[in-house]
Amino acid sequence: MTNTLSPVKRVAISTGGGDAPGLNAVIRAVVLSGLKRGWEIYGIRDGFHGLLLPERYPDGGLIRMTRDTVRGITHLGGTILGTSNRNNPMQFLVKMPDGTTQEVDRTDEIVRAFGLHEIDALITVGGDGSLAIANVLMQKGLRVISVPKTIDNDLDKTDVTFGFDTAVAFATEALDRLHTTAASHGRVMVVEVMGRYAGWIALNSGVSGSADVILIPEIPYDINKVIEKIKQRDDTGARFTLVMVAEGAKPKDGHISVVEHESGRAERLGGIGEKVAHEISSFSGKETRVVVLGHLLRGGSPTAFDRLIALRLGAAAIRALEENQSGVMVALDPPQVKYVPIPEAIGKMKFVPVDCDTVQTARDLGISFGD
Ligand code: F6P
User: What is the CA(331)–ligand 1 centre distance, in A?
Assistant: First the structure.
Protein backbone atom coordinates (compact mmCIF):
# COMPACT_ATOMS: atom_id res chain seq x y z
CA MET A 1 0.00 0.00 0.00
CA THR A 2 1.79 3.13 -1.17
CA ASN A 3 0.48 6.60 -0.46
CA THR A 4 1.59 10.18 -0.23
CA LEU A 5 3.09 10.20 3.24
CA SER A 6 5.76 12.61 4.37
CA PRO A 7 9.30 11.19 4.47
CA VAL A 8 10.18 9.13 7.54
CA LYS A 9 12.57 10.59 10.10
CA ARG A 10 11.84 8.68 13.29
CA VAL A 11 10.87 5.03 13.55
CA ALA A 12 10.04 2.87 16.58
CA ILE A 13 10.37 -0.91 16.68
CA SER A 14 8.59 -3.28 19.03
CA THR A 15 8.91 -7.05 19.51
CA GLY A 16 5.76 -8.79 20.76
CA GLY A 17 4.44 -12.25 21.58
CA GLY A 18 6.58 -15.27 22.40
CA ASP A 19 10.24 -14.74 21.58
CA ALA A 20 11.91 -16.51 18.67
CA PRO A 21 15.59 -16.88 17.74
CA GLY A 22 16.28 -14.19 15.15
CA LEU A 23 14.46 -11.28 16.82
CA ASN A 24 17.77 -9.57 17.64
CA ALA A 25 18.89 -9.97 14.05
CA VAL A 26 15.70 -8.15 12.90
CA ILE A 27 16.35 -5.36 15.42
CA ARG A 28 19.96 -4.98 14.26
CA ALA A 29 18.95 -4.84 10.60
CA VAL A 30 16.23 -2.25 11.31
CA VAL A 31 18.57 -0.07 13.38
CA LEU A 32 21.56 -0.20 11.02
CA SER A 33 19.45 0.24 7.87
CA GLY A 34 17.55 3.14 9.47
CA LEU A 35 20.67 4.90 10.78
CA LYS A 36 22.25 4.53 7.34
CA ARG A 37 19.39 6.65 5.95
CA GLY A 38 19.93 9.29 8.63
CA TRP A 39 16.76 8.32 10.55
CA GLU A 40 16.35 8.05 14.31
CA ILE A 41 15.36 4.60 15.54
CA TYR A 42 13.71 3.93 18.90
CA GLY A 43 13.02 0.63 20.63
CA ILE A 44 9.82 0.14 22.64
CA ARG A 45 10.35 -2.07 25.69
CA ASP A 46 8.41 -5.32 26.23
CA GLY A 47 5.97 -5.17 23.33
CA PHE A 48 4.02 -1.95 23.96
CA HIS A 49 4.53 -1.85 27.72
CA GLY A 50 7.27 0.75 27.30
CA LEU A 51 4.59 3.17 26.11
CA LEU A 52 1.64 1.98 28.21
CA LEU A 53 3.44 1.39 31.53
CA PRO A 54 6.35 3.88 31.38
CA GLU A 55 6.60 3.96 35.20
CA ARG A 56 8.00 0.42 35.03
CA TYR A 57 11.12 1.61 33.22
CA PRO A 58 13.45 3.92 35.17
CA ASP A 59 15.59 4.33 32.01
CA GLY A 60 12.52 5.00 29.86
CA GLY A 61 10.14 2.73 28.01
CA LEU A 62 11.37 4.09 24.70
CA ILE A 63 15.09 3.68 24.01
CA ARG A 64 17.10 5.60 21.44
CA MET A 65 18.88 2.92 19.41
CA THR A 66 22.46 3.44 18.27
CA ARG A 67 25.07 1.27 16.56
CA ASP A 68 26.36 0.40 20.04
CA THR A 69 22.99 -0.90 21.27
CA VAL A 70 22.89 -3.48 18.45
CA ARG A 71 26.55 -4.46 18.29
CA GLY A 72 27.16 -8.23 18.48
CA ILE A 73 23.53 -9.32 18.83
CA THR A 74 22.77 -11.12 15.55
CA HIS A 75 23.72 -14.48 17.03
CA LEU A 76 21.88 -14.01 20.33
CA GLY A 77 18.50 -15.61 21.10
CA GLY A 78 15.71 -13.59 22.75
CA THR A 79 15.16 -9.89 22.16
CA ILE A 80 17.17 -7.03 23.66
CA LEU A 81 13.96 -4.96 23.73
CA GLY A 82 12.03 -7.55 25.75
CA THR A 83 8.62 -8.87 24.77
CA SER A 84 5.30 -9.83 26.26
CA ASN A 85 2.50 -12.16 25.32
CA ARG A 86 0.17 -10.82 27.99
CA ASN A 87 -1.70 -7.58 28.10
CA ASN A 88 -2.45 -7.21 24.43
CA PRO A 89 -3.10 -3.42 24.09
CA MET A 90 -6.54 -4.19 22.66
CA GLN A 91 -7.49 -6.15 25.79
CA PHE A 92 -5.23 -4.63 28.44
CA LEU A 93 -6.02 -5.84 31.94
CA VAL A 94 -6.64 -2.81 34.15
CA LYS A 95 -7.38 -2.85 37.90
CA MET A 96 -10.54 -0.84 38.54
CA PRO A 97 -11.09 1.35 41.64
CA ASP A 98 -13.53 -1.29 42.96
CA GLY A 99 -10.76 -3.92 42.89
CA THR A 100 -12.08 -5.80 39.84
CA THR A 101 -10.03 -6.28 36.68
CA GLN A 102 -11.34 -5.23 33.29
CA GLU A 103 -10.11 -5.52 29.73
CA VAL A 104 -9.53 -2.07 28.24
CA ASP A 105 -8.59 -1.10 24.67
CA ARG A 106 -5.50 1.09 25.02
CA THR A 107 -4.57 1.35 21.34
CA ASP A 108 -5.56 5.06 21.23
CA GLU A 109 -2.91 5.73 23.88
CA ILE A 110 -0.27 4.13 21.66
CA VAL A 111 -1.27 6.38 18.75
CA ARG A 112 -1.13 9.41 21.08
CA ALA A 113 2.32 8.38 22.37
CA PHE A 114 3.61 8.28 18.79
CA GLY A 115 2.33 11.84 18.30
CA LEU A 116 3.85 12.97 21.58
CA HIS A 117 7.28 11.55 20.72
CA GLU A 118 6.95 12.69 17.09
CA ILE A 119 7.58 9.19 15.78
CA ASP A 120 6.53 8.74 12.16
CA ALA A 121 6.27 4.98 11.87
CA LEU A 122 6.14 1.69 13.74
CA ILE A 123 7.82 -1.60 12.84
CA THR A 124 6.16 -4.37 14.79
CA VAL A 125 7.75 -7.81 14.90
CA GLY A 126 5.38 -10.54 16.03
CA GLY A 127 2.92 -13.31 15.30
CA ASP A 128 -0.82 -13.36 14.67
CA GLY A 129 -1.58 -11.30 17.81
CA SER A 130 0.90 -8.57 16.80
CA LEU A 131 -0.51 -8.50 13.28
CA ALA A 132 -4.01 -7.90 14.67
CA ILE A 133 -2.68 -5.04 16.83
CA ALA A 134 -0.80 -3.61 13.83
CA ASN A 135 -4.02 -3.68 11.83
CA VAL A 136 -5.91 -1.66 14.46
CA LEU A 137 -3.07 0.85 14.85
CA MET A 138 -2.95 1.25 11.08
CA GLN A 139 -6.71 1.90 10.97
CA LYS A 140 -6.18 4.55 13.65
CA GLY A 141 -3.73 6.37 11.39
CA LEU A 142 -0.34 5.02 12.40
CA ARG A 143 2.14 4.17 9.67
CA VAL A 144 2.94 0.50 10.34
CA ILE A 145 5.12 -2.22 8.84
CA SER A 146 4.91 -5.75 10.27
CA VAL A 147 7.60 -8.41 10.35
CA PRO A 148 6.23 -11.95 10.86
CA LYS A 149 7.65 -14.07 13.68
CA THR A 150 6.92 -17.43 15.29
CA ILE A 151 8.88 -20.61 15.83
CA ASP A 152 5.68 -22.49 14.99
CA ASN A 153 5.88 -21.43 11.31
CA ASP A 154 2.09 -21.21 11.18
CA LEU A 155 1.73 -17.76 9.61
CA ASP A 156 0.25 -17.77 6.16
CA LYS A 157 1.46 -15.40 3.43
CA THR A 158 5.14 -15.93 4.15
CA ASP A 159 7.17 -18.88 2.96
CA VAL A 160 8.69 -19.47 6.40
CA THR A 161 9.16 -17.60 9.69
CA PHE A 162 12.51 -17.08 11.42
CA GLY A 163 13.06 -19.15 14.56
CA PHE A 164 11.46 -22.20 12.99
CA ASP A 165 14.68 -23.60 11.54
CA THR A 166 16.45 -23.17 14.90
CA ALA A 167 13.61 -24.95 16.71
CA VAL A 168 13.61 -27.83 14.20
CA ALA A 169 17.40 -28.21 14.48
CA PHE A 170 17.17 -28.36 18.28
CA ALA A 171 14.29 -30.86 18.31
CA THR A 172 16.14 -33.03 15.78
CA GLU A 173 19.24 -33.04 17.97
CA ALA A 174 17.08 -33.98 20.95
CA LEU A 175 15.72 -36.97 19.00
CA ASP A 176 19.26 -37.99 18.02
CA ARG A 177 20.24 -38.00 21.69
CA LEU A 178 17.11 -39.82 22.80
CA HIS A 179 17.57 -42.47 20.11
CA THR A 180 20.57 -44.03 21.79
CA THR A 181 19.14 -44.02 25.32
CA ALA A 182 15.78 -45.36 24.06
CA ALA A 183 17.58 -48.14 22.17
CA SER A 184 19.81 -49.00 25.13
CA HIS A 185 16.83 -49.42 27.48
CA GLY A 186 14.29 -50.73 24.97
CA ARG A 187 11.95 -47.91 25.99
CA VAL A 188 9.39 -45.67 24.38
CA MET A 189 10.48 -42.03 24.47
CA VAL A 190 7.77 -39.42 23.95
CA VAL A 191 9.02 -35.96 22.96
CA GLU A 192 6.60 -33.00 23.18
CA VAL A 193 7.38 -29.90 21.13
CA MET A 194 5.65 -26.54 20.66
CA GLY A 195 3.13 -26.10 17.86
CA ARG A 196 -0.30 -25.02 19.08
CA TYR A 197 -2.27 -25.09 15.85
CA ALA A 198 0.20 -26.48 13.33
CA GLY A 199 2.57 -29.43 13.52
CA TRP A 200 5.46 -28.07 11.46
CA ILE A 201 8.12 -28.44 14.18
CA ALA A 202 6.98 -31.97 15.09
CA LEU A 203 6.78 -33.03 11.44
CA ASN A 204 10.07 -31.63 10.19
CA SER A 205 12.12 -32.64 13.23
CA GLY A 206 10.30 -35.96 13.53
CA VAL A 207 11.19 -36.95 9.97
CA SER A 208 14.76 -35.57 10.20
CA GLY A 209 15.36 -37.21 13.59
CA SER A 210 13.88 -40.61 12.61
CA ALA A 211 10.87 -40.62 14.91
CA ASP A 212 8.67 -43.69 14.52
CA VAL A 213 5.41 -41.90 15.37
CA ILE A 214 4.54 -38.22 14.76
CA LEU A 215 1.36 -36.73 16.21
CA ILE A 216 0.30 -33.33 14.88
CA PRO A 217 -2.82 -31.15 15.29
CA GLU A 218 -3.76 -31.60 11.63
CA ILE A 219 -4.09 -35.41 11.94
CA PRO A 220 -6.10 -36.42 15.02
CA TYR A 221 -4.68 -39.69 16.33
CA ASP A 222 -6.02 -42.99 17.59
CA ILE A 223 -3.88 -44.24 20.49
CA ASN A 224 -4.53 -47.84 19.39
CA LYS A 225 -2.73 -47.13 16.11
CA VAL A 226 0.22 -45.73 18.05
CA ILE A 227 0.37 -48.88 20.18
CA GLU A 228 0.06 -51.05 17.05
CA LYS A 229 3.15 -49.33 15.67
CA ILE A 230 5.07 -49.89 18.91
CA LYS A 231 4.11 -53.59 18.89
CA GLN A 232 5.15 -53.92 15.23
CA ARG A 233 8.55 -52.53 16.11
CA ASP A 234 8.89 -54.89 19.04
CA ASP A 235 7.94 -57.81 16.79
CA THR A 236 10.67 -56.91 14.32
CA GLY A 237 13.22 -56.70 17.16
CA ALA A 238 13.52 -52.90 17.30
CA ARG A 239 12.43 -52.88 21.02
CA PHE A 240 12.35 -49.06 21.29
CA THR A 241 10.14 -46.35 19.78
CA LEU A 242 10.49 -42.58 19.41
CA VAL A 243 7.19 -40.69 19.50
CA MET A 244 7.17 -36.99 18.54
CA VAL A 245 4.09 -35.05 19.70
CA ALA A 246 3.12 -31.45 18.94
CA GLU A 247 1.59 -29.69 21.97
CA GLY A 248 -1.60 -29.07 19.95
CA ALA A 249 -2.07 -32.71 18.90
CA LYS A 250 -5.39 -34.21 19.87
CA PRO A 251 -7.00 -37.65 19.85
CA LYS A 252 -9.83 -38.39 17.40
CA ASP A 253 -13.03 -37.22 19.11
CA GLY A 254 -10.90 -35.63 21.85
CA HIS A 255 -9.60 -32.20 22.82
CA ILE A 256 -6.30 -30.37 22.93
CA SER A 257 -4.56 -30.45 26.34
CA VAL A 258 -4.74 -27.09 28.09
CA VAL A 259 -2.97 -26.24 31.35
CA GLU A 260 -4.15 -22.66 31.85
CA HIS A 261 -6.83 -20.23 30.69
CA GLU A 262 -6.18 -16.55 31.24
CA SER A 263 -8.27 -13.61 30.16
CA GLY A 264 -6.85 -11.56 27.29
CA ARG A 265 -4.38 -14.16 26.02
CA ALA A 266 -4.29 -17.51 24.27
CA GLU A 267 -4.80 -20.50 26.54
CA ARG A 268 -1.59 -22.25 27.60
CA LEU A 269 -1.20 -25.70 26.11
CA GLY A 270 0.62 -28.60 27.70
CA GLY A 271 0.27 -32.12 28.97
CA ILE A 272 -0.29 -34.04 25.73
CA GLY A 273 3.14 -35.73 25.98
CA GLU A 274 2.31 -37.01 29.50
CA LYS A 275 -1.12 -38.16 28.37
CA VAL A 276 0.23 -40.08 25.37
CA ALA A 277 3.05 -41.61 27.45
CA HIS A 278 0.63 -42.68 30.18
CA GLU A 279 -1.66 -44.37 27.66
CA ILE A 280 1.24 -46.09 25.92
CA SER A 281 2.64 -47.54 29.14
CA SER A 282 -0.81 -48.57 30.43
CA PHE A 283 -1.96 -50.22 27.20
CA SER A 284 1.32 -51.68 25.94
CA GLY A 285 3.14 -52.32 29.21
CA LYS A 286 6.26 -50.70 27.71
CA GLU A 287 8.48 -48.61 29.92
CA THR A 288 7.90 -45.05 28.69
CA ARG A 289 9.54 -41.70 29.39
CA VAL A 290 8.53 -38.16 28.40
CA VAL A 291 10.69 -35.17 27.48
CA VAL A 292 9.00 -31.79 27.03
CA LEU A 293 11.25 -29.50 24.99
CA GLY A 294 8.98 -26.48 25.56
CA HIS A 295 10.80 -23.18 25.81
CA LEU A 296 14.18 -24.74 25.03
CA LEU A 297 12.93 -24.54 21.44
CA ARG A 298 12.65 -20.75 21.69
CA GLY A 299 16.09 -20.20 23.22
CA GLY A 300 19.65 -20.36 21.98
CA SER A 301 21.47 -19.00 19.01
CA PRO A 302 19.57 -18.74 15.71
CA THR A 303 20.82 -20.93 12.86
CA ALA A 304 22.54 -19.18 9.93
CA PHE A 305 19.31 -19.66 7.94
CA ASP A 306 17.22 -17.89 10.59
CA ARG A 307 19.76 -15.08 11.02
CA LEU A 308 19.78 -14.42 7.30
CA ILE A 309 16.02 -14.29 6.86
CA ALA A 310 15.63 -12.16 10.01
CA LEU A 311 18.24 -9.68 8.71
CA ARG A 312 16.55 -9.64 5.29
CA LEU A 313 13.10 -8.98 6.79
CA GLY A 314 14.41 -6.19 9.06
CA ALA A 315 16.20 -4.42 6.21
CA ALA A 316 13.15 -4.88 3.95
CA ALA A 317 10.92 -3.24 6.58
CA ILE A 318 13.07 -0.11 6.44
CA ARG A 319 13.07 -0.16 2.63
CA ALA A 320 9.25 -0.40 2.74
CA LEU A 321 9.11 2.80 4.82
CA GLU A 322 11.56 4.52 2.49
CA GLU A 323 9.24 3.60 -0.40
CA ASN A 324 6.39 5.21 1.57
CA GLN A 325 4.60 1.93 2.12
CA SER A 326 2.36 1.39 5.13
CA GLY A 327 0.05 -1.32 6.41
CA VAL A 328 2.07 -4.16 4.95
CA MET A 329 3.74 -7.26 6.29
CA VAL A 330 7.19 -8.09 4.92
CA ALA A 331 7.08 -11.69 3.73
CA LEU A 332 9.45 -14.21 2.23
CA ASP A 333 8.74 -15.29 -1.30
CA PRO A 334 12.00 -16.99 -2.30
CA PRO A 335 14.27 -15.75 -3.70
CA GLN A 336 12.74 -12.35 -2.87
CA VAL A 337 10.92 -10.59 -0.07
CA LYS A 338 7.48 -9.23 -0.85
CA TYR A 339 4.94 -6.95 0.86
CA VAL A 340 1.51 -8.30 1.81
CA PRO A 341 -1.29 -5.97 2.99
CA ILE A 342 -1.70 -6.62 6.75
CA PRO A 343 -5.49 -7.29 6.51
CA GLU A 344 -4.72 -10.15 4.08
CA ALA A 345 -2.19 -11.67 6.48
CA ILE A 346 -4.36 -11.55 9.60
CA GLY A 347 -6.02 -14.61 11.04
CA LYS A 348 -4.79 -16.92 8.31
CA MET A 349 -2.93 -19.91 9.67
CA LYS A 350 -0.60 -22.09 7.66
CA PHE A 351 -1.39 -25.67 8.60
CA VAL A 352 0.52 -28.74 7.50
CA PRO A 353 -1.29 -29.96 4.36
CA VAL A 354 -2.02 -33.57 5.26
CA ASP A 355 -1.14 -34.65 1.73
CA CYS A 356 2.10 -32.65 1.46
CA ASP A 357 5.19 -34.46 0.30
CA THR A 358 6.86 -34.39 3.73
CA VAL A 359 3.86 -36.25 5.19
CA GLN A 360 3.96 -38.66 2.25
CA THR A 361 7.70 -39.12 2.71
CA ALA A 362 7.14 -39.88 6.39
CA ARG A 363 4.51 -42.48 5.51
CA ASP A 364 6.83 -44.00 2.86
CA LEU A 365 9.50 -44.31 5.56
CA GLY A 366 7.04 -46.21 7.75
CA ILE A 367 6.39 -43.37 10.21
CA SER A 368 2.93 -43.57 11.80
CA PHE A 369 0.71 -40.51 12.32
CA GLY A 370 -1.57 -42.53 14.58
CA ASP A 371 -4.31 -42.50 11.93
O1 F6P B 1 5.61 -18.94 20.01
C2 F6P B 1 4.45 -19.74 19.94
C3 F6P B 1 4.46 -20.67 21.08
O4 F6P B 1 5.72 -21.21 21.03
C5 F6P B 1 3.40 -21.76 21.09
O6 F6P B 1 3.72 -22.91 20.39
C7 F6P B 1 3.21 -22.02 22.55
O8 F6P B 1 1.95 -22.56 22.83
C9 F6P B 1 3.38 -20.67 23.15
O10 F6P B 1 4.29 -19.98 22.31
C11 F6P B 1 3.83 -20.68 24.58
O12 F6P B 1 4.09 -19.39 24.99
P13 F6P B 1 4.35 -18.93 26.51
O14 F6P B 1 4.62 -20.13 27.34
O15 F6P B 1 5.52 -18.01 26.41
O16 F6P B 1 3.11 -18.22 26.91
Answer: 22
